[in-house]
Structure to design on (361 residues):
C-alpha cells in the first residue's frame, strides 16, 4: 500500500488486481464467508438505511445503473452496466465501480472496482438466502446459464451450503465446458464436486435440491418451466435484473413462496414484474431477523427473486475497505486536492502548475 504525507485525508483505491490479491490472501472460501457475514449484519440493520430503487438508463443494447444507499454514517454507490452483447467487443457483460463516503464530511474514503466484487457479493447473497430458504439436507444444484457469474455461484454453494452434486446446462455447451474445467481446479473444503454437463434444462433440474438460473438473455423467456419444479426445491433466480427481462414461467411464482430484497425494485426488475402489483412477496431481511418465516416445510417450493440491491454493494465495499486496510493492499490517491486553505482551490492549482513548470526545465 502506497502512502505519503498529506494535509487532507486521502482515498484508498482498489483495482481488480488489488481485489484479486485480497482473495488470494484470504482464500476464496474465507472471502465468501466474510461477505456473507457482512451481508447478514447489514441486512439485520435494514431499518437504519435510506433505501431507493436503482436509477437506470436503458438502451436496446443494455442497461447502465446507479445504485446508492446510506445509513446516515456512510454513503455508498455503485455504477454498473449489463450489456449481453459485449462479447463481440471483447468486453464483459457486467462491469462496475463504486465508492464509500463519510456522511459527516462527504470525504471519499474508498474507490474500488466492483466487477469482480459484484460477482462475489451476488454469489454470497444467493448463499445467504439459501441458508434460510433451502432444505438443510440440500446437496445437489442445477446451474442453468454458465457465463461469468456461474463459477461464483457454484463455488459459493459448494463452500457455504455443502453442495457437491452440480449439474450444468447452457445453450452454448462450450460455456458449460469452461465452467467444468474451472471447477475441476478449484480448491474446496471437504470432498470434491461432482460436475455433470447436461443436454437440457430438464435433465439438469431433475432431482436437484436447488436450481439456480443465471442467464444473460435480454428479454422475457422461460429458462425454467413450472412442470420441471419438484416439491422441496429452492429456486435461486439471478438472471433477471431489469424491466422486460425474466427467466421463469409465471406459474412457478404462483406455486412458490417468493422472497425478495427490496420490493419496489424487484417488482420493476425481477421475476415478479410478470405478476400483479399486489402479488404477495416476503422481504428477505425479515426472514433473517426472525420476523417472518422462511422455509416451513420440507415439500415447500421457495424462490429467491434476486435482482441485486445497493445494500449488498455497501456491504461489499465495507468488507473490502476493512480487509485492504488490515492487509495493506491498495493505493492511496488524491481525489481531493488537500490544499492548506480549503477555500483556496485556485491557489493550490497555481502551486501545482508552478511545480510542473519547474519539472519541465
Amino acid at each position: 500500500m502506497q502512502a505519503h504525507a498529506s494535509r487532507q485525508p486521502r482515498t484508498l483505491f482498489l483495482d481488480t488486481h488489488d481485489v484479486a490479491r485480497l482473495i488470494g490472501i484470504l482464500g476464496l472460501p474465507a472471502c465468501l464467508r466474510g461477505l456473507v457475514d457482512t451481508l447478514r449484519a447489514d441486512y439485520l440493520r435494514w431499518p437504519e438505511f435510506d433505501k431507493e430503487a436503482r436509477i437506470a438508463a436503458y438502451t436496446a443494447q443494455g442497461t447502465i445503473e446507479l445504485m446508492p444507499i446510506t445509513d446516515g454514517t456512510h454513503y455508498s454507490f455503485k455504477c454498473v452496466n449489463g450489456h449481453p452483447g459485449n462479447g463481440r467487443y471483447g468486453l464483459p457483460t457486467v462491469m462496475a465501480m463504486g465508492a464509500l463516503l463519510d456522511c459527516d464530511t462527504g470525504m471519499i474514503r474508498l474507490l474500488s472496482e466492483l466487477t469482480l466484487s459484484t460477482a462475489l457479493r451476488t454469489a454470497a447473497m444467493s448463499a445467504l438466502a439459501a441458508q434460510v430458504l433451502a432444505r438443510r439436507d440440500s446437496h445437489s444444484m442445477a446451474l442453468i446459464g454458465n457465463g461469468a457469474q456461474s463459477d461464483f455461484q457454484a463455488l459459493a454453494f459448494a463452500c457455504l451450503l455443502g453442495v457437491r452434486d452440480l449439474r450444468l446446462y447452457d445453450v452454448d455447451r462450450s460455456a458449460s465446458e469452461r465452467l467444468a474445467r474451472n471447477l475441476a481446479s478449484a480448491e474446496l473444503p471437504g470432498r470434491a464436486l461432482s460436475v455433470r454437463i447436461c443436454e437440457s434444462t430438464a435433465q439438469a433440474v431433475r432431482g436437484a435440491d436447488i436450481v439456480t438460473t443465471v442467464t444473460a438473455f435480454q428479454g422475457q423467456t422461460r429458462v425454467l418451466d413450472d412442470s420441471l419444479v419438484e416439491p422441496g426445491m429452492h429456486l435461486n433466480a439471478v438472471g433477471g435484473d431489469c424491466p422486460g427481462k425474466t427467466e421463469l414461467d409465471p406459474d412457478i411464482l404462483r406455486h412458490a413462496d417468493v422472497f425478495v430484497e427490496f420490493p419496489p425494485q424487484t417488482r420493476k426488475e425481477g421475476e415478479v414484474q410478470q405478476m400483479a402489483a399486489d402479488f404477495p412477496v416476503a422481504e428477505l431481511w425479515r426472514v433473517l431477523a426472525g420476523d417472518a418465516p422462511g422455509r416451513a416445510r420440507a415439500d415447500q417450493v421457495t424462490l429467491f427473486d434476486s435482482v441485486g440491491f445497493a445494500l449488498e454493494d455497501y456491504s461489499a465495499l465495507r468488507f473490502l475497505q476493512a480487509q485492504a486496510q488490515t492487509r495493506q493492499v491498495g493505493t492511496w490517491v488524491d481525489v481531493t486536492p488537500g490544499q492548506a486553505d480549503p477555500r483556496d482551490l485556485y491557489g493550490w492549482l497555481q502551486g501545482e502548475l508552478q511545480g510542473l513548470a519547474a519539472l519541465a526545465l
Notes: The mean pLDDT is 94. The CA atoms of residues 9 and 46 lie 30 Å apart.
